[in-house]
Amino acid sequence: MSESRQIAHMAVDALVNEALLTPKPALVDRRGSGAHHDLDLTRLLCSASSLRESFGRMAECAQGRTPSQSLREDLAQIGREAEMAMFVATGGSNAHRGAIWVLGLLVGARAICGRVAEEVVRVAASIARFPDRFAPNAPTNGSRVCEHYGVPGARGEAQAGFPHVINIGLPALQRARERQIPETCARLDALMAIMAQLADTCLLHRGGTAALEAAQSGARAVVELGGTSTLAGWRALLELDAELVRRWVSPGGCADLLAACFFLDEPSWKN
Predict the structure, then answer these.
(1) Which of 6, 132, 140, 199 has its CA 20 to 30 A from that of 244?
(2) HSE (CB half, 13 Å, CA atoms) of 95?
(3) What is the per-residue pLDDT across 19-74, written as a single tens digit (0 to 9) for each?
(4) Domain boundaries in the chain?
(5) pLDDT value of position 1
């Protein structure tokens, strides 16, 4: 298998692993659709599979190049085509638009610099800081939220080198594994660590600051109770799920960054 195809497979596997992880608060998982009317697990998995070719093209596009405006624009064009493939696969539902941005940058960076997570996010940030002259001018939900609430959003997260991935999510995953807890709980603990601190624009878009505060405080409670491998932490996780579903909000930005953790996770490189 070529390196670009391997990288693409790893990106898709990261999305599949995120989708299958259960239970995730108000997110699509094996139990059902969470706080979504237009998504379910089947659509999410079809979306992930539909992105394989695009991720491979991104990796091929970046090989042998350095971060530049032309590379940024080339990756962005492939990303827009990936969105079209996603919408076809899901019947018009937005399953992975944010993940295409996040993983697209990481795929390109991985093709340039190798597999060391710290170096991959550094290169990805360098790419993200270049402008895209061909980006659509129409504002998105994310850009409106960033402007209204003054939060970094997905673009700011990437340009900063994915701090919620490299400094929060991955360390939480590694600490949980060191405690030798079940892998499902380790991955849920990583999600809780991210959710406790990320200003998730998906939550802000659908529920405002009240939804964000509910998600962050609920996730902090899980962490403070010892994580999802403890009975109290597991109960707090289910309470958080019920609260976010009641509010009908979903932490999609946290899910995208969790998938990024899976993509960069060192054990996955070795399997």
Answers:
(1) 140
(2) 31
(3) 999 999 999 999 999 999 999 999 999 999 999 999 999 999 999 999 999 999 99
(4) 3-132+144-270
(5) 75
Is residue 177's pLDDT more than 90?
A: yes
Whether this prediction's pTM lies above 0.70 is answered by: yes
Cis peptide bond prior to 139, omega within 30° of 0: no
